Amino acid sequence: MLCREDLIAGFIESTDAEAVVIALSPKSLLATNRFICEVCNKGFKREQNLQLHRRGHNLPWKLKQKNPKEACRKVYVCPEPTCVHHDPSRALGDLTGIKKHYSRKHGEKKWKCDKCSKRYAVPSDLKAHSKICGTREYRCDCGTLFSRYYYYYYYYYYYYY
Question: What transmembrane ranges does the database entry give (predicted)?
Answer without folding.
Answer: none
